[in-house]
Amino acid sequence: MSEEENINQSPDDNHASTVENKTVDQLQNEKMEVQKHPHHVTHKKKWGEYLLEFFMLFLAVFLGFVAENVREGQVEKAKEKEYMVSLLSDLKQDTISANRTIFANRLLIAGEDSTLHFLSANLHSQDTAEMALVYFYKYCIYSTFIRISDGTISQLKNNGGLRLLKNQEVINYINQYYNELVIAKQQEAAINEFLNTIDKQAGEIFNYTGNKKFIDSSNSSEKNVYDLPHSLLISWLTHGTPTMLATDIKDLSPFMSNMSYQVGLMSTYILNLKTLKKQATDLMQLIKKEYHLENE
Questions:
Q1: Is 42 helix (H, G, I), strand (E, B) or coil?
Q2: Residue pLDDT, tens place only, 145-198
Q3: pTM for this prediction
Q4: φ and ψ at 206, to 5 degrees?
């Protein structure tokens, strides 16, 4: 190319010439530099790292499970002791009530025996007949039963509370005590049934109509009739009015037989109350020992 031609070339022609003069390798390198993107190197985990991650996850779940079990165990243990404190209080009240009920039923039995004695005597005598009525009405138509504080034991038996108890001996004692309570309730039902029978028969034996003041005054008393003095009851009688509607032993025999059977029921009831009281005492001692409640 001549000098004159070089002078006449435009700048664009110079640039094109420069591009033409570049080697193919240079152009390829420039293209690669433009298209090249940075990239991150991926780290391939070893099996040991996967194992460590699994172990850490397992340990976290396991410790959470253990912590929850410990918490539930503490809650159940506290609830168990709460039940035992409450049951201990109920048992104390039961033993007090058992003592009172035993005493009252012994008194009623003694009074029924006296009534049977007067009914077996000469009822044609006004004094004997009046004493038979007084003793019958004072001792033979009332029942005195134990007042059981069964709130705690009912929760334990009926609301699944027994599952909280860890001591099998305590559970066995509670079940035995509960069974005695059931027997006591059955005996009380039988006693009441015979009381109703005797009371109906008495209406055909004693002259209630002629001694209405005696009946009304006795029923309106604020105290138990068997706590009232004999002299007060006798003063309410309508003296001179026939006291008995029946005096023949044949007519009295079914009535007296039922009274005798009633005495037997009450005697058996007392024996059950003694057993109940002993079981309550044994259970209290066991609870105090096992749950460290000696000061309760």
A1: coil
A2: 999 998 898 888 887 788 888 889 999 999 999 999 999 999 999 999 999 999
A3: 0.74
A4: -100, 150
